Amino acid sequence: MESGIGRGEDGVLCLSGVPLDGLLRAGGVQTPAYVYDLDAIAASARSLVAALGDRGVCCYAIKANDAAPIARTIIREGCGVDVVSGGELSIALACGARPDRIVYSGVAKRDDELDLALTTGIRAIHAESVEELDRIAARARALGKIARIGLRVNPSVEADTHAHIATGHDEAKFGIARDDLPRAFDVIRASQGVLHLVGMSSHVGSMLMTTAPYVEALGVLIEIVRDARARGFALEYVDAGGGFGVPYRDDQQAVPGAEFVTAARATLDAAGLSELALLIEPGRSLVAAHGVLLTHVIQPKRSNAGGVARRWLLVDAGMNDLIRPALYQAHHRIVPVDAGTGPVVPWRVAGPVCESSDDFGEHPLPDPPPSLLAIREAGAYGRSMASTYNTRPIASEVFVSGGKVASVRRARAIAALVEEEIKE
Questions:
Q1: Which end of the chain is more exposed for a tag (fewer CB within 10 A), N or C?
Q2: What is the pLDDT of residues 308-329, one digit of tens each?
Q3: In which domain, by residue range, is 164 found?
Q4: Are 110 and 161 found together in one domain?
Q5: 373: domain CATH number?
Q6: 149-175: pLDDT as tens digits
Q7: Geometric angle at alpha carbon 400, from 324 and 363, rounded to 5°
Q8: Is 134 helix (H, G, I), strand (E, B) or coil?
Q9: Can you tell me the distance from the alpha carbon of 214 to that of 142, in angstroms, rounded to the nearest whole number?
Q10: Residues with Cβ < 8 Å from 130, sequence gap 6 or more?
């Protein structure tokens, strides 16, 4: 089965061999509900760890999905973690990540978050501005620590992706511009050893479908590494970032994550820098394809306004559960859990949230419509970006492994949400 997803002999959609309709009934789980294949996630992590070999660390970008069963699975396969908040750092440590295999990125780290990173001894804090270097140095002095730092450099590489997830261009808030690096080097020297520069990092954006922009950005980093070494800085690693894409449409193709690693290793070797450790920061590519969002059809809606026939399927999952279509105009394949026998027609799938953007787009589905749908490729940036907008509980989560349910996180009762809001 592709990515652990496929149909059984009875036509019912299965994840890791578990029929999705029966899973809801047996577990007493209501929709909307996320279901994840932990075995497929583990296999994805293993493939990247194997591609890296002893050359570096695969640091899972935990913002893609910070569910503890998923984080623990990925860490057990030999991955470190890339975090962007103190909360993510706390989750990573609680799930067993070794501090020396954690890097901390992000443009606006609070002082208490810097303190947590400094006291737990992570591999490096990735500074994203010259001004942040002064703040890191101040917190390190206050704590009596030496701060291991990397510089996240803006490589001025334009990635062919949505504007909201392109991070490597000159107008992005992320990273230190190359022209500003001399100032950064001056601040590090002026710290008198409080700031210890150990690495260079870049990230050009998400949904990279080919290795070309990744290698191009790494080429920029290599030039910067050589410049830093010429200035007397001894570096330990290069962090080439993540952004490995996954197909969200039938007509999309994406290069496997292992090919990004192979290309990065070859680029470092060709530059004569094989002694540097290589860090990568995949998030989406480890989890996206291995999760689905199950949603029940509330009702169809048909209209002939203006003589134009329109069909909607109104479902119980909304943009508060999966915001990517509303935020990025992202497409997720939607399929019936039971294949059905009716003719396939275009249905526009929309949720219950009181926003016009609560719309999952048009999809070919049977008529009469099925009662249960699976929104595919929902393992990344779904539950981790969810909210309780419209006072809707965050969806349940079901984790399957070995052909059975491993654990369940149930949605909070609405009464509990209301009680929390009204208490004085």
A1: C
A2: 889 999 999 999 999 999 998 9
A3: 105-282
A4: yes
A5: 2.40.37.10
A6: 999 998 877 554 444 344 444 667 889
A7: 35
A8: helix
A9: 38
A10: 176, 180, 183, 184, 187
